[in-house]
Amino acid sequence: MAGFSARGWWVSKEDGDAVQLKVPMPGLGKEHVKMRVEKDALVIKGEAGKDLEGDDDKGPARYSCRIGLSSQAFKMDQIKADMKNGVLRVTVPKIKDEERKDVFEIKIE
C-alpha cells in the first residue's frame, strides 16, 4: 500500500501483527518531526529551519501528512516511530480479531 502527501510518497507493508509505514522526509531529523493521533488518523508534521537548507532561495523543508487508520483495527496508543537518514519508520500494531469489539461471530440456525 502507498499513499501520496504534499511532499511525496509514503509506503506501507502489512503483516499479521502490524502495519509498517516508511515516510521519506529528506532534510529533516527526528527533532523536526511531530506525530499525533486525531480520531481515526495519524498526523505527521515536520519542519526544518532555513539554517538546515543552506540555499536561501528554497524555503525551509516542510512536510505534512494525514494517514487514515481505524481505532477499531489498530492499537493507536502503541504506535512507535524512529527516524534514520531522513526516513521516518512508523509501526502501527493491529488489534487481533479476537480482541476487537466491533467483530462478532453470528450463529447460524
From TrEMBL:
Ranges for domain SHSP come to 1-109
Pfam families reported in the protein's UniProt record:
HSP20
Q: Which InterPro entries match?
A: A-crystallin/Hsp20_dom, HSP14.7/HSP23.5/HSP23.6-like, HSP20-like_chaperone
As for family, the record states:
Belongs to the small heat shock protein (HSP20) family.
Name of the protein: SHSP domain-containing protein
Protein's organism: Zea mays
Its ancestry begins with: Eukaryota, Viridiplantae, Streptophyta, Embryophyta, Tracheophyta
